[in-house]
Amino acid sequence: MTSRQDSLPYHLFEWKWIIENTYGHKPIYLIAINNGKTYGVLPLFYIRWPFPVFPKKIVSLPFLDAAGILAQDEEIAGLLLNKAFSIASSLKSLLEIRQTEPISISKSSLNLVNKRVCLVLELPDSSQQLMRSFKSKLRSQIKRSIREGCKTIVGGSELINEFYKIFSINMRDLGSPVHSRKFFINVFRYLSHIGRIFLVYYKNIPVACSLILTYKETIFNPWASFLRKYKRFAPNMLLYWKMIEYGCNEGFKYFDFGRSTIGSGTYKFKKQWGGEEYKLYWYSSHITRNEREKFQFAENIWKILPISFTKVVGPFIRKFVSL
Fold it and tell me: For the whole model, what pTM was predicted?
């Protein structure tokens, strides 16, 4: 089913091993098969907090922008969804499905619960052509970073340590528990053929990073970070330009900036690059408050904790936060 045009890199079966081997969550992969032929899939993971005060969840897929139902037709999609509801009911858990297309099945009993979008930039044949299409302010910010002496390298798993150092600090500054380093090690263990790490250096100091996934005609950018103390050198501008430039030079047709919430600072940053906005459809069997709103107080506390503490405790908490 991953050969379908609407499939995403997050539908790849390798995510079963990545998530299961990192966090121990139970995978529940639903597959519609007839006479040996696959007609639909729905990847799910069961997430259960060790504390009963938090709800149990079945999610497709946790930690990622979207996966959801891939089906030949609406009838197959309905069968997969009904089975997911049945499993969620037996486990007394919420059901959450993340899609790039709306669920059109009638009486699905799912509620649209988010305002998240993806911004996707169509890439021309050359990076020079794209640079000329940018507004002068955007071009000057990119050039400023280069004038300040920032440089970029691209690599694979050998760059995980430097990537994670930046990423963990940035997540602390955002008030968010950081993923386990093992999570990214497993990404490259199972998906090294589509994963690349970008690092921006200022005077030999790594100050910005990203991890991209190349899939079909698109570069996906699910994780990117920079150190705020170096913001005046605009390393994030150079980081994004180098990823986009890489996409043009390697013949990709699209650059997916990853999810953001409409109106947020991240959304505005990505919007300036000129990408087209696509709605993400996150559905839940129950209407609940946004997880970020529920944990707002905890986020404010987290921002002031020592990075050494957040790197140890963060992965344990992040394991159960499906965002």
Answer: 0.93
